[in-house]
Backbone:
C-alpha cells in the first residue's frame, strides 16, 4: 500500500495526540513532540510504528504532537490518519483493529 | 459557564469590534485592511458571550492568535485555537503552516509541534507540517566552494535581470538564482521559473532554484505582494533577511548576495536597505547598478504594460529573446489574465 495524500487526525488538546502522515522515501520516520518524551517517547513511537506495520507500509513520514494521550488514543488517531492518507477511510481496517 | 468555539465573521461590524477590542487588549494593534482582508477564517472561543481566545488563518499562515491570560490557566484555549485552525486548514489540503509571533510566544507554538525557523528581537517565525526548511535545503543541488545568490521574482525575466545574473556569474565561482515561488504575479510560478532557466541556460556556473516558502514568499513577506506602509515592510524584510543569513546561506555556503538598484520600487528599496544592514558580515552584499537602455532603466513593469497595450514590437529592447518568444507564444493567455483583473503595476 502507498500513501496517496497527506492526512491528519487528532487535536492538540490535553490527553490527545495529533498525527500527520505523508509520503516518505526513507522508511518509517516518526517525528515526535511530547512533554513526556523522556519517559514515554520510545513507547509512543513503538505504538505508532506497530500500526504502520499492520498497514503494511514501508515508507511513510509521521509527525506526532502528543499532549499526554493514552495508548489506545495514539492507536486510534494513527489508524484514522493512515486511512485518510490511503483513501480507505470508508472501510474499516479490520485486520488492524 | 458554557464554553463554545465558533467562527467569527469579521465582515459583521459588531463581531469585528468585539474581536478588535479583545486583541487590542492583548497588545495586538494592526487592523489595517491590508492585514485583515486577506484573512480566510477567524475562530473564537466564547464563555457565554465573552470572547476568551481567537485565531485566524490567511492561506498557509496563522495570524491574530490571542488568548486571554486570565482565562487560559494551562494553555488549553491556546491549544484548542491552534488545533482547530490546523484541522480546518488540513481539510482544505494545507498541512505546511507558518506563524509569525512575538518571540515570547515561540515556546507555546513549539509545544504544539511548531519549529522555529528564525527570530529577531521583535518577531519569531515558525512552521509545522510534513515538510520543513531542512527538507527544502536538502533538495537544492550542492556545489563545492563558495556560491553567490540572487533572488528575483522575474515577472517577467528582463534584460535587467539577465545583466545582474551575468555580472554575478563573472565575479563568482557559482551562482544560485532563487526564483520567488509565491504565485501572485502576472506570470505564474512555473512560467517565471522556466523563463529564468531559459534566459540563463548559456551560463554554466548558474543554477536556477525555487525560492519555496522561505525567500520573499507570501508567508515571510506579504508586504511585497500587497501595497503597504514602510515600517511594515521593514519588519517583515528583517525576518526574510534572517532566514537567508541564518538558514539558507550556511547550508549552501553562500558568501555573497547580489542586488540590483531599484529606483522605481519603494518596497524593493527598503528591502535592499534591510539586506545591507542584516546580512554582513556573514554574507557580503554587492549592489549592481540597474541596466539602462536609451537612458532609462529596464523595468519588468514596462514589459507588462507593453503586453497589456499589445506593443510586442517594443519587447526586444527590454527582454532577452527567450522571454520575447515566451511572451509571443502566450500573448493571448497573458492579456486574458490582465483583462480578468490581474494587477500589473506592482513591484
Residues:
Amino acid at each position: 500500500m502507498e500513501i496517496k495524500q497527506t492526512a491528519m487526525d487528532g487535536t492538540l488538546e490535553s490527553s490527545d495526540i495529533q498525527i500527520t502522515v505523508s509520503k516518505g522515501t526513507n522508511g518509517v520516520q516518526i517525528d515526535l513532540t511530547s512533554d513526556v518524551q523522556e519517559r514515554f517517547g520510545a513507547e509512543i513511537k513503538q505504538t505508532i510504528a506497530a500500526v504502520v506495520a499492520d498497514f503494511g507500509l514501508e515508507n511513510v513520514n509521521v509527525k506526532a504532537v502528543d499532549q499526554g494521550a493514552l495508548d489506545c488514543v495514539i492507536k486510534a488517531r494513527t489508524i484514522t490518519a493512515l486511512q485518510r492518507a490511503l483513501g480507505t477511510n470508508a472501510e474499516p481496517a479490520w485486520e488492524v483493529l | 459557564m458554557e464554553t463554545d468555539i465558533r467562527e467569527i465573521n469579521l465582515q459583521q461590524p459588531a463581531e469585528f469590534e468585539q474581536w478588535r477590542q479583545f486583541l487590542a487588549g492583548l497588545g495586538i494593534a494592526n487592523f489595517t485592511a491590508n492585514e485583515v482582508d486577506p484573512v480566510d477564517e477567524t475562530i473564537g472561543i466564547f464563555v457565554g458571550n465573552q470572547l476568551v481566545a481567537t485565531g485566524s488563518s490567511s492561506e498557509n499562515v496563522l495570524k491574530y492568535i490571542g488568548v486571554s491570560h486570565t482565562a487560559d490557566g494551562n494553555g488549553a484555549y491556546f491549544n484548542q485555537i491552534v488545533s482547530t485552525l490546523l484541522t480546518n486548514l488540513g481539510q482544505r489540503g494545507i498541512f505546511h503552516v507558518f506563524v509569525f509571533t512575538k518571540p515570547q510566544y515561540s515556546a507555546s507554538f513549539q509545544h504544539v509541534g511548531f519549529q522555529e525557523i528564525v527570530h529577531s528581537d521583535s518577531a519569531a517565525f515558525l512552521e509545522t507540517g510534513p515538510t520543513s526548511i531542512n527538507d527544502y535545503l536538502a533538495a537544492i543541488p550542492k556545489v563545492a566552494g563558495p556560491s553567490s545568490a540572487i533572488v528575483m521574482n522575474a515577472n517577467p525575466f528582463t534584460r535587467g535581470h539577465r545583466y545582474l545574473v551575468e555580472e554575478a556569474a563573472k565575479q563568482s565561482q557559482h551562482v544560485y538564482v532563487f526564483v520567488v515561488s509565491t504565485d501572485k504575479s502576472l506570470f505564474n510560478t512555473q512560467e517565471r521559473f522556466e523563463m529564468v532557466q531559459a534566459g540563463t541556460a548559456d551560463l554554466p556556473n548558474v543554477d536556477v532554484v525555487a525560492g519555496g516558502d522561505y525567500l520573499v514568499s507570501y508567508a515571510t513577506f506579504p508586504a511585497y505582494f500587497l501595497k503597504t506602509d514602510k515600517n511594515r515592510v521593514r519588519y517583515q524584510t528583517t525576518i526574510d533577511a534572517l532566514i537567508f543569513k541564518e538558514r539558507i546561506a550556511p547550508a549552501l555556503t553562500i558568501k555573497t548576495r547580489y542586488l540590483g538598484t531599484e529606483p522605481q520600487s519603494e518596497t524593493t528599496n527598503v528591502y535592499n536597505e534591510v539586506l545591507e544592514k542584516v546580512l554582513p558580515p556573514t554574507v557580503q552584499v554587492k549592489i549592481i547598478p540597474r541596466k539602462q537602455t536609451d537612458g532609462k532603466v529596464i523595468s519588468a513593469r514596462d514589459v507588462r504594460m507593453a503586453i497589456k497595450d499589445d506593443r510586442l514590437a517594443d519587447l526586444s529592447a527590454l527582454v532577452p529573446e527567450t522571454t520575447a518568444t515566451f511572451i509571443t507564444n502566450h500573448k493571448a493567455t497573458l492579456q486574458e489574465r490582465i483583462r480578468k483583473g490581474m494587477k500589473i503595476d506592482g513591484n
User: Anything to note?
Assistant: The domain at 137-339 of chain B is CATH 3.40.50.620 (Rossmann fold). Residues 166 and 321 of chain B are 15 Å apart (CA to CA). DSSP finds 13 helices and 14 strands in chain B.
